[in-house]
Amino acid sequence: MSGNPELSEQPILVGGTGRSGSTIVGHLLDHHPQLTLTRPMEVRFITGNDGLTDALTVGLRKPGSPKARAAAELAVDRIRNRWFRRAEHVGLHTSIGEDELAVLCGIYLDAFDAEPLEATRALVREVMSQVAANIGADRWVDTTPANARKADRVEPIYPESTVIIVHRDGRDVAASFTQQSFGPDDVFDALDQWEQRMLRIHRAVQSSRPDRIIEIDLVDLVDRDRSGSLARVCAAVGVEEDPAMVAWFQENVTASGAHHQRWRSDFEPDVCEQIDERYSAITERLREHGVRIPPPGS
After folding, report:
1. Residue 224 lies in a domain
2. C-alpha span between 8 and 247 (Å, rounded)
3. How confident is the model at residue 3 (pLDDT cuts 50, 70, 90)?
């Protein structure tokens, strides 16, 4: 770690709808010598639900209000409890002590009512400086999925950040969620969630500075345009393609590993027909809002 303060102000935030491929991109970038994936690779407290960017949004809209105060206190509760120690080796506790975090959160709450942006910036940057120091990173990469739908909300905190949004066919996203221990376990609920998140991502992109955002399709990255997608990602974050990163990409990022059209094999034919009908209706509504629909995998 060289301690270059300019690089610390240029984090890379990777996100999507969940189960869309953001983790793959995070690991890919981690294999570049100038970039380091955070540990945990999803810090969550910045853009996660009821996290600091959500509190900041309320604080900027209604500074000093009881609603803003409640949002800030909820964000502190989540950072100190839910996201501090998620598992033995997963959580902010691997980088910062509990007592120190408590002090920083107290300072944040004391300043939030009058200066919500300054208070939020100070807390985020202090915690992330310790996360970065723990992993020896100048420029860090976080893969919290909500980075995509909160791209606009994180911009005031890190104006020079880059947000990489990874898109995937919603039917595959929904099928993947049903196999996880988190998120919707019903494929149709998962499709509805995908619609809501795609719309929020679209609105976040529209409200963000364009040069901060790059959107890629998972099917392009793993199959249809591998070299072009890799080049676009590197150009967006301002690094040259590195041989070690390219070698890892060629060996580990494969079309078969992406499980294209898994929804067709995970469900019975009659359910697949219902999924396709629901998805057609969803994509039609999204297109009416100007949302670009990711292409299906072959």
Report:
1. yes
2. 27
3. low
